């Protein structure tokens, strides 16, 4: 089963979705399962994991409703207030939804670079693990050492880094990110999504040649048993059609064994999210 481990849906709201800037005009509209399904069929992708884009329980419920209506949505990564004193009660409520697999917080937007290690937040993440949920780590390169510390302190939690921690591809910055990704990759409880890289490159002028050094580092650091394909659709559309991203990764994966390809395209995500 081929899985897209990272895509979004939304009913566009210019105030709530202010992160979608005027420069991102192609995605300043609604995106629903009906828009994605033909792209999956064109590329042979069997199912997806829908990931929150807004930090509200309403967003989690929205994605769960779509998942109930569309079989190709195999899992949902939602949002819940991980610092809330009623977290356990909320997770008890969500256990009624089998397609809910994990949670995410938009840490990259937090002004505190050490946010991941705040006691109340870290305890919330620990509680997720106790309930069997995964945690998606959405960060910038500067947060990688902090993410490693989080994974070290919570060895029984399962983490996945979204978008390779958003390396500064357009600026050509590789050295520091490489060292930090390699260090994080030594934590066996951490996986990495090969997603969102085209939007960190030059939207108008990116290529596999430009992405290859970053892809090499991710695969060398995590191996195919801990890497998973993600499109970051529809955000990717500012830089690439869905089909082109799949095509580029198929080209990159040509030297890999059939077992490694199967892990990357579906097995890792299926096992990580228990799809």
From TrEMBL:
Q: Where is the Amidohydrolase-related domain?
A: 3-275
Which GO molecular function annotations are given, in alphabetical order?
Answer: hydrolase activity
Listed A to Z, the keywords are: Hydrolase
KW Hydrolase (keyword) present:
yes
Family, per entry: Belongs to the metallo-dependent hydrolases superfamily.
The identity of this protein, by name, is: Amidohydrolase
């Amino acid at each position: 089963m081929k899985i897209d481990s990272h895509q979004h849906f939304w009913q566009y709201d210019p105030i709530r979705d202010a992160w979608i800037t005027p420069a991102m005009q192609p995605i300043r509209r609604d995106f629903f399962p009906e828009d994605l399904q033909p792209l999956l069929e064109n590329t042979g992708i069997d199912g997806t994991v829908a990931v929150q884009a807004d930090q509200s329980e309403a967003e989690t419920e929205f994605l769960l409703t779509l998942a109930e209506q569309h079989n190709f949505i195999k899992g949902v990564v939602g949002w819940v207030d991980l610092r809330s004193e009623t977290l356990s009660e909320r997770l008890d409520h969500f256990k009624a939804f089998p397609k809910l697999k994990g949670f995410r917080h938009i840490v990259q937007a937090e002004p505190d670079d050490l946010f991941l290690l705040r006691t109340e937040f870290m305890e919330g993440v620990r509680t997720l693990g106790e309930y069997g949920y995964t945690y998606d780590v959405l960060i910038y390169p500067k947060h990688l050492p902090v993410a490693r510390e989080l994974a070290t302190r919570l060895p029984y939690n399962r983490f996945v880094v979204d978008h390779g921690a958003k390396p500064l591809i357009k600026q050509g910055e590789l050295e520091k990110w490489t060292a930090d990704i390699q260090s994080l990759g030594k934590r066996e409880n951490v996986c990495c999504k090969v997603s969102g890289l085209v939007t960190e490159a030059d939207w108008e002028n990116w290529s596999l040649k430009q992405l290859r050094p970053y892809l090499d580092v991710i695969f060398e650091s995590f191996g195919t048993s801990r890497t998973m394909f993600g499109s970051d659709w529809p955000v990717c559309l500012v830089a690439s059609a869905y089909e082109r991203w799949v095509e580029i990764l198929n080209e990159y994966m040509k030297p890999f064994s059939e077992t490694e390809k199967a892990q990357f395209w579906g097995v890792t995500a299926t096992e990580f999210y228990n799809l």
